[in-house]
Amino acid sequence: MACIVTGFPSSIAALQFEWAWQNPHITHHIPPSSRISHATQKKRSGHPKRPRHSIQSLLSNLHILLSVPSFSRWPLEVRFFSPDVHKAWIKSSKGAIEPLRNSLPNITNFPSAEQIVTDSKGGETTSGHHGIEALKVAYEDMKPHLEKGKKLFNPDMKEACEICNQDLQHNSGLHTLCPNTDCGTITHMTCLSRYFLQGEKNKQLDELLVPIKGVCPSCKMEVRWNDLVKELSLRVRGQQVVEKLLKPKRVKRAAKGAAASQAIVESDDDWEKEEEEEDYINMGEFEPQNLEEEENEFKNYFDSDDSDTMSVASIASTKPQMRSGPVTQSRLITVIEDSDIDEDEELNG
């Protein structure tokens, strides 16, 4: 894997972007005047056939998608795991007509020449974590922000919005909290959104609703809107996730009685495994229950008409479902007929 795009607000949003990137010749997110990939052939169904992709065409189409109104203000990040692909991206970006916003992060995460070592079999390996292994998909970095929110937002809170100066009530409305550890600024989400948008000085200010980033009205620290919404969403809808994340670690205790001076000897692996099981965050609790159903419907809708091949989910759904387990035959009821011996003979015999 050489390049990925992260930071999507939901799985459905990621599927929409992925499909548009794979089908730039027919996606509605790219205007016809801006297309660089065109279909020269048609499928049997009459739909345009997907043109062959190259590294250059994929990077160019990625640049176009990141600059269109549909995705330009999403909190996305482009991550490169290959130096050659990153160089091609820089070259492609210089020749692009529509520049990307300056706040769009381009993150390089590939090993340097000093970190590449040769193993005993002659293959090349890297020291340290790079690529997919280095991605942070949990919420460990948000612990200080979540802990501060847990302390400030309580039934006895007496805080006022920093922008409109109105009193804030617990569990009444959506309130944002500054992530700076030395700042306790709380605001209405709508008030802070307008405040951030005014600071952007965008010509289309009247058409925008969600900002990208802004400066805290109190501590003047630059804050990403995505970080504020993450804490707000976990505080309002992810109480179980927050409790598991902030759960204190257990400490080993010494045995009582005669063995009080000796610590309990346990396998480090078993201890770590037990801690991991307790601290594991089940992301399924935080996602909608019918998410898989929605994703399959989304895939089937596009794959059936516009994609060259059916998705794995659609193929699996079309297969006849066979009942597993041994086949049991119906049991016959054994009927015992009456004896031919008369009752008198049976009694006299």
TrEMBL record:
Residues 30-52 are annotated as: Disordered. Residues 161-229 form the Structure-specific endonuclease subunit SLX1 C-terminal domain. GO terms for biological process: double-strand break repair via homologous recombination. It comes from the Eukaryota. Pfam families: SLX1_C (PF21202). Residues 40-52 have a biased composition (Basic residues). PANTHER family: STRUCTURE-SPECIFIC ENDONUCLEASE SUBUNIT SLX1. This is Structure-specific endonuclease subunit SLX1 C-terminal domain-containing protein.
